[in-house]
Amino acid sequence: MKQNSLTNSEKEIMDLLWTTDRPLTASEIVSLSPDRTWKKSYIHLLINSLLEKQMIRIADFVRTEKNYARSFVATLSAADYAILQLTSQKNFSPESIPVLVSSLIDQIDDVQLIEKVEEVVRKKKEELK
To answer: One MF term in GO for this entry (predicted)?
Structure first.
């Protein structure tokens, strides 16, 4: 990952790719973004920037009415991007993980999710032994 900070416009595109279950072409991204803050003529600049930052990749070439178009997918999940944002902060250290995890757990009100977190911790403990 070359650069992990996204502009607001890039984030809008990533949010769309994260919530769509298939690769999207540039024209599909434009048509599925009615509330976009960017001009539709900027889509190719935004896509090239996301490709350069390695946030998206070309998934396929799809036939359109007249020719072929590239389709794109995200290279990491929204959760992985959030973790990348946290861990790339200058003041981040492994010692801050318990505070972060505690804050995240405070957001949970589902026993099954708590059990999943416990299972992740248990597996990591076993892995480290």
So the answer is: DNA binding
Q: What is the pLDDT of residues 5-57, one digit of tens each?
A: 899 999 999 999 999 989 999 999 999 998 888 888 899 999 999 999 999 99
Q: Which amino acid is at 88?
A: S
Task: Say what the pTM is.
Answer: 0.80
Look over the chain and give the mean of its residue pLDDT values, rounded to a whole number: 91
Alpha helices (H) along the chain: 8-19, 26-31, 43-52, 78-87, 97-106, 111-128
Residues 120 and 74 in one domain: no
* Same-domain pairing of 104 and 58: no
- Of 108, 94, 56, 105, whose CA–CA distance to 44 is shortest? 56
Rounded CA-CA distance 114/31 in Å is 39
Q: Which domain holds residue 110?
A: 94-128
